[in-house]
Design brief:
Elements: H1 4-8, H2 11-24, H3 37-52, H4 61-78, H5 100-130, H6 141-154, H7 158-178, H8 183-211, H9 215-233, H10 240-268, E1 277-278, E2 281-282
Antiparallel strand pairs: 1-2
Helix pairs in contact: 2-3, 2-5, 3-5, 4-5, 7-8, 7-9, 8-9, 8-10, 9-10
Length: 291
């Protein structure tokens, strides 16, 4: 289904959405059809369901705050809740008469934009919560991954993004446990897990070097401790192909630990920030006198 903003942020579509909402609430039916009715129908259904059966999912307070800010900004931009300034001429026809019907329809269209955004955002938040346990192949798995991308987009710093990538690697590990025996699916999820691990490691090791302090490395080492234990658990009862693939992920975690220890030592002995880097981030030189 097209994105909510693609559907609604068009005057004609917004006006048609307003009509459909009116009809759904018992207003006189407009005996017309629009080529966008099929796209708007699911949003009308969402609006009806929200009014009679609010979602039981508890919405995160940060989401509420962000949604409120977005709706207020849209309302201000669209002029909702304000009256025309005395100096502004009223909307008129070419003969100078007011157009109350057009004005009302335009107001409903603007309201429909807000209703659509709110309904879509709330519905998405509920679907997102329902998708938490989805695995590749499930209908809601795409929503789960989209939610992760949204979290990354809202992260306030590279450290936050690095921590999120490590959280996603843990999530991929849980998915892999559900897919043991499915050689292709299992391997694909571990590929994604390793990719998330590398992304998180690169962000956190870079932050540690730039700040010349090991706090980010402490976060990384805590992740490694739990992740190595959990990944090792996947070896039990696995097929040979799954064990071979799992071992590659364990080898990656071992390389990450070596990099973390080397960076910690370089920071401790005051080495300048490394100029070389790779998939795991900065590649430090050995401290003077180190063997």
């Amino acid at each position: 289904m097209p994105a909510v903003d693609d559907i609604l942020f068009s005057r004609r579509r917004a006006e048609r959405f307003a009509q459909l909402l009116d009809e759904a609430n018992g207003a006189r039916r407009h005996h017309v059809r629009s080529r966008v009715d099929g796209q708007l129908a699911p949003l009308v259904v969402v609006g009806q369901r929200l009014s009679v059966d609010p979602p039981a999912v508890e919405v995160d307070q940060d989401f509420r705050t962000g949604l409120r800010a977005m709706l207020l900004a849209t309302a201000e931009r669209e002029g909702l809740g304000t009256t025309p300034a005395a100096s502004e001429p009223a909307a008129t026809t070419t003969r100078g008469r007011l157009l109350p019907a057009a004005t009302a329809r335009r107001a409903r269209a603007r309201g429909a934009i807000l209703v659509g955004v709110a309904a879509g955002a709330i519905a998405v938040s509920g679907i997102s919560a329902a998708s938490e346990n989805a695995v590749p192949g499930d209908a809601l798995y795409g929503m789960k991954r989209s939610t992760e991308r949204a979290q990354l987009a809202l992260a306030s710093s590279d450290i936050s993004r690095g921590q999120l990538f490590l959280d996603f690697a843990r999530t991929r590990l849980g998915e892999a446990a559900e897919l043991r025996g499915d050689r292709i699916g299992y391997s694909a999820v571990l590929d994604d897990m390793d990719a998330d691990t590398r992304q998180g490691v690169r962000l956190l090791t870079t932050a540690a070097v730039q700040r010349a302090e090991p706090g980010s490395l402490d976060t990384l080492n805590a992740f490694l401790t739990g992740q190595r234990r959990a990944v090792s658990g996947l070896l039990d009862g696995s097929t040979r192909a799954d064990r071979d693939r799992t071992q590659r992920s364990l080898d990656l975690l071992s390389s990450v630990r070596e990099r973390s220890d080397a960076l910690r030592a370089a920071i401790a002995c005051g080495l300048p920030a490394p100029t070389l880097s790779d998939a795991l981030g900065p590649a430090p030189s050995a401290c003077p006198g180190a063997r």
